[in-house]
Specification:
By secondary structure, this protein is an alpha/beta fold. It has two domains: about 5-170 and about 210-235, Rossmann fold; about 170-205 and about 240-275 and about 290-315, UDP-galactose 4-epimerase, domain 1 (Alpha-Beta Complex). It is about 40% helix and about 15% strand. Helix 1 (about 10-25) packs across helix 7 and helix 8 (about 245-255) crosses helix 10 (about 290-315). The radius of gyration is 19 Å and the shape is globular. It starts with a strand and ends with a helix.
Length: about 325
């Protein structure tokens, strides 16, 4: 049994990670400012600290007597990173440095969330960890900065670190009304309300979707192998799905025929994103196991149940 800190643990990915850690008998402490996370996402066994990763005192307090940290706290909205460049930078990069600095005393390992956004609009497919990083947004630049500072932490301070480049994560608890939300949660919500599905451009834009349960397994495997080599891994399925295919698969699992509304393409949208999962499979012995159809079925089922519960509570 170990004791882990999960920053951003009340959020979408973080809360699923907390559930998995608790289920295997670990102790879990969460640091979250609840800007997007929800306290009700967390099991009663979780020790919760309301605080921000930009607050040195809060991070230091949360880091006492832990065996490792999963650093997931971030502002994940690309649009917000463009509008509030400085504010998101303070959370996404300064927050990461706060966590790494807290690890200097006891050298606890830090597994942190990076992003496929570090690749930018890279034509090399599938994307490998050794491919050139060329972020196009402040969010992507800050995530690349996290990787660089993690390497410095390992080289200068002997802190074990591992970076996880998340591709398009989806699953239960992803809020469709949040600016951080992914396309799957938005499509699912609109289908459930019999609304048109908006697709910007021709719908041939493709993404590498990975179920949140698989992401949790990647994270735990990375913690078990964290060391001072400051390794970086793609967290992806290695499967490409375009938006038209996504809408069709959602229609199949939900039993609702979507009405697609094609809108003008958005400036700056990346045409294709596909990751190579080979490094994680070889070194961490972990790979995506949940098919898109199965993952979408779980996501739709959770959304329907949550919607019904919300409706009953409002009566």
């Amino acid at each position: 049994m170990a004791k882990y800190l999960v920053t951003g643990g009340a959020g979408f990915i973080g809360s699923h990670l907390c559930d998995a850690l608790i289920a295997r008998g670990d102790e879990v402490r969460v640091l979250d400012n609840l800007s997007t996370g929800r306290r009700e996402n967390l099991a009663s066994e979780v020790e919760f600290i309301l605080g921000d990763v930009t607050d040195e005192d809060a991070v230091q307090k949360a880091s006492i007597d832990i065996d490792g940290c999963f650093h997931l706290a971030a502002i994940a909205s690309v649009a917000q990173s463009t509008e509030d460049w400085v504010g998101t930078h303070e959370v996404n990069l300064t927050g990461a440095i706060r966590v790494l600095d807290a690890a200097r005393a006891t050298k606890f390992p830090v597994v942190y969330a990076s992003s496929a956004a570090v690749y930018g609009d890279n034509a090399s497919m599938p994307l490998c960890e050794s491919d050139r990083a060329s972020p196009l947004t402040p969010y992507g630049a800050d995530k690349l900065g996290c990787e660089l500072h993690a390497r410095v932490a390992s080289v200068l301070h002997n802190i074990p670190t591992t970076g996880m480049r998340f591709f398009n994560v989806y699953g239960p608890r992803q809020d469709p009304r949040s600016p951080y939300s992914g396309v799957i949660s938005i499509f699912t919500d609109r289908l459930s309300r019999c609304l048109n599905i908006p697709i910007f451009g021709d719908g041939q834009q493709s993404r590498d979707f990975i179920f949140v349960g698989d992401v949790v397994r990647f994270l735990i495997a990375a913690m078990d192998r964290a060391d001072t080599r400051a390794a970086i891994y793609n967290v992806c399925s290695g499967q490409s799905t375009n938006l038209r295919q996504l809408a069709q698969t959602l229609a199949t699992v939900s039993g609702v025929t979507p009405q697609i509304e094609y809108l003008p393409a958005r400036q700056g949208d990346i045409r294709a994103s596909l990751g190579d999962p080979a490094r994680a499979a070889k070194i961490l012995n972990v790979r995506a196991e949940v098919s898109l159809g199965e993952g979408l079925s779980q996501t739709v089922s959770h959304h329907v149940t949550t919607t019904l519960d919300t409706s009953k509570a409002a009566e």
